[in-house]
Amino acid sequence: MKLTLKIWRQENASAAGAMHTYELDGVSQDMSFLEMLDLLNEQLVTSGQEPVAFDSDCREGICGTCSLMINGEAHGPEVTTTCQLHMRSFTDGETITIEPWRADPFPVLKDLVVDRSAFDRIIQSGGYISANTGSAPEANSVPAPRDKAMRAFNAATCIGCGACVAACPNGSASLFMGAKITALGELPQGQPERYSRVVDMVAQHDAEGFGGCTNIGECTNACPKEIPLDVISQLNKDLRTAIAQGR
Amino acid sequence: MASVHFLPGLTPTNTAPVQKSDDAAGFYVLGDKLVDPKAPTGPIAERWTTRKFENRLVNPANRRKLNIIIVGTGLAGGAAAATLGEAGYNVKVFCYQDSPRRAHSIAAQGGINAAKNYKEDGDSTYRLFYDTVKGGDYRARESNVYRLAEESANIIDQCVAQGVPFAREYGGLLDNRSFGGVQVSRTFYARGQTGQQLLLGAYQALERQVAEGTVEQFTRHEMLEVVVADGKARGIIARDMVTGAIETHIADVVVLATGGYGNVFYLSTNAMGSNVTASWRAHRKGAYMANPCYTQIHPTCIPVTGDHQSKLTLMSESLRNDGRVWVPKKAEDCEKDPRDIPEEDRDYFLERIYPAFGNLVPRDIASRAAKYMCDEGRGVGPTVREVGPNGEERQVRRGVYLDLTDAIRRLGRDKVEEKYDNLLDMYARITGENPYEVPMRIYPAVHYVMGGLWVDYELQSSIPGLFVTGEANFSDHGANRLGASALMQGLADGYFVLPNTIRDYLADGPFEAIDESHPAVVEALESVQERIDKFLSINGSRSVESFHKELGTIMWEYCGMERTKEGLIRAIGLIRDLKKEFWSNVRVLGSGESLNQDLEKAGRVADFIELGELMCIDALNRRESCGGHFRGESQTEDGEALRHDDEFAYVAAWEWGGDDGAPVLHKEDLIYTAIEMKQRSYK
Got the DSSP string for B106-158? Predict the structure, then answer.
């Protein structure tokens, strides 16, 4: 396959960026999207040009590191991570536009690499169950109803990639936050901190500059782990309850 | 189990090994014997309890005056940082990823073992201990392994309390499954994403401490040197990967939890960034590297499709519980649609050769059997180009079927989907084939390394004050790791072992204050800067990536699933040539003062090249087959691995011999008192 790639190049966080165009030949249908970029970079280095910086690590769809807007869509045209997107999803001769995640709280560090540490700070604000090492009761002493455990698990599959934010016209992280609140809130272990958790996380979310949720649903469409939109309903419900309790 | 001593005294069941062969003569220097100075004595079941009591305490008011550096935020590092933060120490934690949540532990799929005996199927701490020592081909220390088995049950309690969503039965209690090489159901799992869920538990505990202020977190930081001042590890030199700033961080103690080095093979199931640099830099400063040649090849990965491939993807071997492995009986059937091959023309080779364990034989055995089927010309899937041992090219099909048809018939598609759906989705996405309709294709790939920095019972390396945990150390798995045991070791080390052993060391602290003017710091800083300048100034003609690929090809061919004396000697020569070329012809563009991924990779590949040479020397010296190390010269008449306990029941701990010197081999004899060594047989 032969492709035309339009790629966002930006030297560092404070430099101005611009789109650059590259022609790339010899792309195989079996390559992942990132292997296609590896091929481009190999050619750039050979010709004395600096390779395009982009983030990836596990390349098996679970670490959440890779993060590209491909033709305007977070992770591209399939419901998956960029590392699991294969070139068989594109056609010979196609022009592909590649940009970093778009969202103010995710500033660009270089080329296609963004800073997602705002997500860590949201977790720091309450996205955990306080259980010091050594203080845990016997695991089977607290049964968890299977349907609730299943819902918790489905929400817990969030990989924190940030596609939901990049896809949201408001730049909201409500799907990310709702997933954590649902995962912990559905389990008996998560109850003691359930309502303080939601209040603290929402406050941090807003302080980071993420936008409000208006239920557009682009987030869930872009989510590679198909986190359902109802985790945001859960978030809102828990937040209402917390407010009603005067927290 | 008849020969197991249930009431162990201290009578050794084996004698110290005496090595007769010397295949690696000329490639190494023999050093003094190594003895674990912290090895506990007494009845095996009491050793850890006794040690926890005997290790000195640090009073809570003094803990905040003590500084701990932890490098790596996977299960071992994340759990240790969280636990030590909770205890009140000052912790700094470093990772090269943009968030601790992305450490490669997150990719572990299948599960975590624990001796809870929830199934009442005969499991016990002793049985988990026994299985682990046996599975590791009697090349692990029995005290360490017993402790691991003992702590396993606590891990489950801890993780459940954190909200890790393990699979549950309808009554709300925890579910278990069985795993490769094991006949009891002791594996706890969260669908095919157990590593992710366990890591998120540790990560959340860690972030909680960051918020509390006990832990300071440095992301996108890479450790490039360890500071050894007055004989003790006192800090690290790290590079801020965004700004390029070279930073000095001083502490009372340094912990490496930096994972494994499987990427020395280029293609592996490890994350792209997984590397050996932290361990290798420590090795060059005096930390011994133990058993580096022990590489676990995982039998159930998605096969290679072509030259463009950057990494391999593992399919949890829990699939072997329900999937049947086969190849066509006739080579001419290999191109056919597998659904058109009748039952009588299929060779379920694992069930045929190993009827007692069948598809659940341990990983090394399953891997090698698959290789032999393909070598015989009965592999399936696309033909790939390979360079053979003599440098000639060959075309081979590298794949065997993993077939869920019977399971779908027996359990129903829904049940199979519930157990494995994300794995099967992943397979479909990568291969473009539907595993519910067509048997999957699998092939072995490099997955985990049992070798790593040598540590004593307290997880301290040969450099005082440098502790090593998780996959980065050599301990607990011997020559082969059983399925679902990596997560167990990472978390046992991180939550329970290290926090209890490190306090004895810290009880001597705080140590004398040092600052950036200390000669050890100056030396470390200068060497880091020189190295970076060197990479940027070579300006040769070959990309870093091309060197890594070439190293990987050499390692896989000669130090992969099967090793021979002749091949290993050839590999050492090839690696030495490659090293010379790297340092004169690599091209690294850009600057050191910015985010520069090629510069990062250059340092890692340079270290992988040196490690690769040591792995080959270690493999050459060990003229026996055990676990993940199969020497062609040491097999039984019917092609099974043949160990030589009388010669090699030792840990090979290698000391850096200098840039121009040969590595020094220190042998730590493995003496068992609770277990009697036996040849493995899964037939």
Answer: GG--S-EE----TT-SS--HHHHHHHHHHHTTT-S-HHHHHHHHHHHHHHHHH
Q: How far is CA B186 from CA B149, B156, B484, in A?
A: 11, 11, 9
Report helix, strand or coil for B643.
coil
Kindly report the backbone phi and psi dihedral angles of residue A241, in degrees, each rounded to the nearest multiple of 5, phi listed first.
-60, -45
Residue type, A141: S
Instruction: Return the HEC string of B574-639.
Output: HHHHHHHHHHHHEECCCCCCCCCHHHHHHHHHHHHHHHHHHHHHHHHHCCCCECCECECCCECCCC
List, in sequence order, the alpha helices (H) in chain A: 33-46, 117-124, 146-156, 163-167, 174-185, 194-207, 218-222, 230-244
Is A53 within 8 Å of chain B by CB? yes
Give the C-alpha separation, B452 to B289, whole Å: 6
Per-residue model confidence as pLDDT tens digits over B567-596: 999 999 999 999 999 999 999 999 999 999
Q: For residue B363, indicate whether it is catalytic.
A: yes
- pLDDT tens-digit map of B490-520: 999 999 999 999 999 999 999 999 999 999 9
Inform me whether the C-beta atom of residue A149 falls under 8 Å from chain B C-beta atoms. yes
A77 CA: distance to closest CA in chain B (Å): 13
Nearest chain B residue to A140 by CA distance is B173
Of A45, A123, A184, the CB nearest to B589: A45
Q: Which of B169-178's residues contact partners 24+ apart within 8 Å by CB, and which partners?
A: B169/A146, B170/A146, B171/A143, B171/A146, B172/A143, B172/A144, B172/A145, B172/A146, B172/A149, B173/A140, B173/A143, B173/B118, B174/A139, B174/A140, B174/B116, B174/B118, B176/B116, B176/B118, B176/B119, B177/B111, B177/B318, B177/B321, B178/B321, B178/B360
| DSSP annotation of A71 | T
Of A50, A136, A153, the CB nearest to B160: A136
Interface mutation vs chain A, best among B197, B272, B307, most A CBs within 10 Å: B272
Q: What is the pLDDT of residue B389?
A: 67
* pLDDT above 90 for A192: yes
Distance of CA B284 to the CA centre of its chain: 20
| Contacts for B604 with CB less than 8 Å, ≥ 6 apart | B263, B275, B276, B277
> Do B270 and B313 contact (CB within 8 A), yes or no?
no
Q: Is the ipTM of this complex over 0.95?
A: yes
Spell out which residues of chain B touch residue A42, defining contact as CB-CB under 8 Å: 543, 545-546
pTM: 0.96
Q: Does A18 touch chain B (CB under 8 A)?
A: no
CB contact under 8 A, A146 and B160: no
The minimal CB distance from B432 to the residues A88, A110, A187 is found for A88
CB contact under 8 A, A123 and B203: yes
Report strand pairing: B400-403 vs B324-328. antiparallel
Chain A contacts of B210, Cβ < 8 Å? Answer: 120, 124
Asked if A14 reaches chain B (Cβ–Cβ under 8 Å), the answer is: no
Residue % of chain A over a pLDDT of 70: 100
Catalytic hit among B102, B363, B398, B441: B363
Rounded to whole angstroms, the Cα distance separating B185 from B181 reads: 11
**Contact residues, chain A, for B314 at CB < 8 Å:** 60
- Cβ distance B163 to A139 less than 8 Å, yes or no, reads no
Alpha-carbon separation of residue A60 from A194, B185, B271 (angstroms): 32, 27, 8
Contact B594 A12 (CB under 8 A): yes
Contact A55, A112 (CB under 8 A): yes
Question: What percent of chain A is helix, strand and coil (3-state, nearest 5)?
Answer: 40, 10, 50
Q: A91 is written with which tokens?
A: 């056609």
Q: Mind spelling out the 3-state secondary structure of B165-177? A: CCCECCCCCECCE
